[in-house]
Specification:
The structure is a single chain. This protein folds into three domains: about 100 residues, no CATH class; about 200 residues, no CATH class; about 110 residues, no CATH class. The chain is built from 24 helices and eleven strands. It is globular. It starts with a helix and ends with a helix.
Length: about 550
């Protein structure tokens, strides 16, 4: 409690120092609180920071509040639907500038987690970290068998710091929802919840190791992406040991040119990896900044990416993934009518939105960018204009898409850096068209039926009684109806016809399920089973509809 109160006073001091109380409270429901801040001693010490542009004041305040707030600002920098241009541009400049913690602390954490001394665990351990960030830092090491590895160590005390700051963020989010004129649409508490989930996942290095294994399995036969091995015997919630990779950092363009790397092919591989992760696996790397990506030197003519740091990953619901995929394909086809309709169908904009007006607004933003190379397109600006358009049409913030938006911006920056002439549309369109066919084609329908066959088989023993109960209820209704409308009674033959139709439908569906069992057990498809299943469904529907006449 004392720690939270002390931290709250620190936040108050920083807010007053940079004049944020005026920025956030003026002309809101809580405008009167600005007068309370006049009592803060910080208000009278200096006012030079309060005279800076508002975006710069917010950025400096977040940096002064520390790594947890810096990470929040970095996440918000991808949410241009929430922010004015000047603030979004400043937040994009935020960096994790965190000094490394001591070698002694790193060794203590490793030894406590693994139950042995560092000298016994490893043949060699590098005292100076290879990299240091807000959550963890990485040391190089060598196993006793000579294998080069890296040891990632969680920053001591980071869990308590994050728990304290996130709990205060929830409080500030509730205040923002109440005071800001646009508070309901911006859904600040949902944004903090998404951030809370993301950053706490980063605190469990076993989660990161598991994510790495998923990526490795997904790309086990890939010739365009390599995922390093995880050493599970040496991995705990606060320590992660993995294979040390050797490659060219993605930032080092000169080194890649020096070995005649095919930069066009490299950029195309980056796009292919992204679409494969999103649409084939629905499991994508959501922290693709340059420090996490390397390129193998082995085959410059057909380059392969090397990826590390799997603490932040993303996946979407089937519904969101379907809408995202169809939206992107509609964009690639310049079908802005379809884009507008999808937004209405998904509930992202109000149902009474005029689709034609929304279509025209989207066309005005996206129309001019087609058939341009990546060097002439800024997806950041396109997203910004789209968000401004969506705001006019009262589009609600979609917190579940935060990581995807962030990844899209990272992909843009990576592609621009590697090969600015890349035709992103021509590269991406075939993957999306293939994905749509896989979701809607005949093979997808067969797979869906096979998936659901066990559930249908479980229900089949109950089918006769369900049909019997249904017919009894129909007979009872018919008797009641005949009392009030005697001229519309069913004949006995009509009733029997309905019963026979229902029974025949159930029998044919049962036969089709036998065929589905063959499909599961064998490679061939029992075509007669599908015909029986279709006829069975038709007969059941006909029987049900006949019973309603």
């Amino acid at each position: 409690m004392i720690s939270r109160l002390s931290r709250l006073l620190t936040i108050e001091r920083v807010m007053v120092k940079y004049g944020l109380e005026t920025l956030f409270l003026k002309d809101t429901k809580a405008d009167w609180l600005r007068h309370v801040f006049l009592l803060s001693p910080t208000r009278w010490l200096s006012d030079k920071e309060r005279k800076l542009p508002r975006g710069e004041r917010i950025r400096l305040a977040l940096e002064e509040l520390g790594p947890v707030f810096v990470k929040l600002g970095q996440m918000l920098s991808t949410r241009r639907d929430l922010l004015p241009d000047d603030i979004g541009d400043q937040l994009a400049l935020l960096q994790d500038q965190v000094p490394p913690f001591s070698d002694t602390s790193a060794r203590e954490t490793i030894e406590e987690a693994l139950g042995d001394s560092v000298d016994s665990l490893f043949a060699h351990f590098e005292s100076s970290p290879m990299a240091s960030a807000s959550v963890a830092q990485v040391h190089g090491a060598v196993m006793h068998d000579g294998t080069d590895i890296v040891v990632k160590v969680l920053r001591p005390g980071i869990e308590k710091m994050i728990d304290r700051d996130v709990s205060l963020m929830y409080m500030l989010a509730d205040m923002a929802a109440f005071t800001l004129p646009d508070g309901k649409r911006l859904r600040p508490r949902d944004v903090v919840t998404e951030y809370d989930h993301t950053i706490h996942n980063e605190l469990n290095l076993i989660n990161e190791a598991s994510n790495g294994m998923v990526f490795k399995n997904n790309f086990k036969d890939s010739d365009i992406l390599y995922i390093p091995d995880i050493y599970w015997d040496y991995t705990r919630t606060n320590v992660l040991v993995m294979e040390r990779i050797s490659g060219i950092p993605i930032r080092d363009i000169d080194a890649m040119h020096a070995i005649n790397m095919d930069m066009k092919k490299l950029a195309e591989h980056a796009v292919e990896i992204f679409y494969t992760q999103l649409f084939s696996h629905n499991f994508f790397h959501a922290d693709m900044h340059p420090g996490n990506i390397f390129v193998s030197k082995d085959n410059p003519a057909y380059p392969k990416f090397l990826s590390v740091d799997f603490g932040i990953v993303g996946s979407l619901t089937d519904e969101d993934l379907a809408y995202i995929g169809e939206n992107m394909l509609a964009f690639f086809r310049s079908d802005f009518r379809r884009v507008a309709q999808l937004h209405v169908d998904s509930g992202w904009v109000p149902p009474d939105t005029r689709v034609s007006d929304f279509e025209a607004a989207i066309r005005s933003v996206c129309g001019p960018i087609f058939e341009k190379p990546l060097a002439e397109i800024s997806f950041g600006n396109v997203l910004l204009q789209l968000f401004q358009t969506a705001r006019r049409f009262e589009m609600e913030v979609q917190p579940q898409l935060v990581l995807l938006q962030k990844t899209l911006l990272n992909i843009e920056g990576l592609g621009r850096q590697l090969y600015p002439e890349l035709d992103l549309w021509a590269t991406g369109k075939p993957y999306l068209e293939k994905w749509v066919m896989e979701r809607r084609g005949p093979k997808a329908l067969v797979n869906k039926f096979v998936e659901q066959a066990p559930l249908i088989l479980d229900a089949m023993p109950h089918m006769p009684m369900l049909v019997h109960d249904y017919m009894q209820s129909r007979k009872h209704q018919a008797e009641i109806h005949s009392v009030h409308s005697p001229r519309k009674t069913h004949s006995v033959s009509d009733t029997r016809a309905v019963r026979y139709t229902l029974a025949g439908g159930a029998l044919l569906i049962s036969s089709s399920l036998v065929a589905s069992a063959q499909i599961v057990a064998q490679t061939g498809i029992a075509w007669w089973g599908w015909i029986a299943g279709v006829l069975g469904v038709v007969l059941l529907l006909r029987g049900i509809l006949g019973g309603r006449k």
